[in-house]
Amino acid sequence: MMIKLFKENGIPLVNVVRREEQVQMLKTEYGADYVLNSESPTFDKDLYELSKKLKCNVALECVAGELTGKIMQVLAAGGVCILYGQLSEQKVGPINPVILIFKHQKLESFLLPYWIAEQSLMGKMSMIKKSKRLVNDITVAKSFGLHQIQEALEFYKNNMTGGKVFLKPSLTE
Fold first, then answer.
1. Predicted local confidence at residue 75, as pLDDT
2. Burial letters 29-52, b for 16+ CB under 10 A, else e
3. What pLDDT does 139 receive?
4. Which end of the chain is more exposed for a tag (fewer CB within 10 A), N or C?
């Protein structure tokens, strides 16, 4: 969804993944222009060079751990890193305070329910319409009812590259 949304708006997007097969999948199946493998021995150098070339000033970060610190290190002056997940299951990694202070950077958080609550009714309707359009090309590996949240999380952990896992409201337990 992000690749499609950013392409439609003419914004370059740097995707960071953890396996080489994910690099190829994002490039071939989704048309991503920039994909870096965080497990590559040249990742730090590649991230620095690409961030400088594209003048990256916003990062949408869902991994946490040391990756957050690495991303903050290469963001342009005035940049903001928006943390919305913790896939690494680690605390946010080392962030040099000098970067925050002298490069005037920010680390923020994002949680969808809070953002939705701030939107007007028209804003919510517009968001639903845009989301439906963006989801059309997404591979869904499996859907679960909300009462199956533990099963859904376990399935996701074992099938991270297989497609999205959807949680849907359900009437049964």
1. 96
2. ebebebbbbbeeeeeeebbeeebe
3. 78
4. C
| Beta-sheet pairing, 164-168 with 140-145 | parallel
Say what the pLDDT of residue 26 is.
94
DSSP readout, 19-30?
SHHHHHHHHHHH
Residue 145, SS3 per DSSP: strand
Amino acid identity at 134: L
Angle CA(16)–CA(127)–CA(80) in degrees, nearest 5?
40
Q: Which amino acid does the sequence have at 101? A: I
First CA to last CA distance, the chain = 30
Q: What tokens appear for 29 in the block?
A: 């199946």
Beta pairing, strands 34-37 & 58-61: unpaired
Amino acid type, 99: I
**Contact call for residues 44 and 73 (beta carbons, < 8 A):** no
Q: Would you state the structure tokens that stand for residue 26, as one six-digit string?
A: 């994002």
